[in-house]
Amino acid sequence: MDIQTVKLLAKYNAATNAGMNKLISGISKDQWEQKFMGYFDSIQLMCNHVYIGDFNWFQRFSKLRSFDYAKDPIFAKEIKFSETAFESVGEYIALRKELDDLIIRFSDEVTASDFEKNLAYVDSHGTKYGKNFGGLILHAFNHQTHHRGMISIYLEEMGIANDYSNLNGLL
Question: Is 58 within 8 Å of 140 (Cβ atoms)?
Fold first, then answer.
């Protein structure tokens, strides 16, 4: 992992979420809650999972050392995976934008020496870990990409054409 890759992934994350969110901003409440065959079986539940995952990872990342992004009041709260972080598409889009902006701030603060350190953290099941910080950053971004791909499939199943995921456009 290196600084330029983290910056690129943060920009990609924000741009891809913005593209996806532009599409889902036009779906109905019924489409937002429509059931599919995935583990997170609606766009609402998938967005909730990704949002809470990102929130928790970037909150955990602030335990490595003092980061300015983590001083934002959004991180003063705890969000459990069993919770619902938002109800409507509009609420989700506002919260997602706020979190994506903080992730970009994180990418501006991370240093090369951070990547070599291990982050001690406790997961949502109470299990303690100590893993490479750079690898965990890559994991967080990969997790987002995986689930946005599922949302793309859900949109296709609803007949909504989509092509919001293009890293090449940022290179």
Answer: yes
Read off φ and ψ for residue 152, nearest 5 degrees.
-60, -45
Three-class DSSP category at 74 = helix
Tell me the H-state helices in 25-126: 29-33, 43-61, 89-109, 112-115
Average pLDDT per 10 consecutive residues for the chain, totaling 171 residues: 95 96 96 94 96 97 97 95 94 98 98 97 93 98 94 96 84 77
Distance in angstroms (rounded) separating the CA atoms of residues 57 and 38:
23
Contact 164, 20 (CB under 8 A): yes
Amino acid at 154: Y
**How far apart are the C-alpha atoms of 41 and 121, rounded to whole Å?**
29
The domain spanning residue 32 has which CATH number?
1.20.120.450
CB 53 within 8 A of CB 165: no
Q: Using CA atoms, how far apart are residues 143 and 127, in angstroms rounded to an integer?
A: 19
pLDDT value at residue 17: 97
C-alpha angle 132/137/140, rounded to 5°? Answer: 125
Structural domain of residue 53, as residue ranges? Answer: 3-170
Enumerate residues 6+ apart whose C-beta is below 8 A from 28. none
Domains held by the chain: number = 1
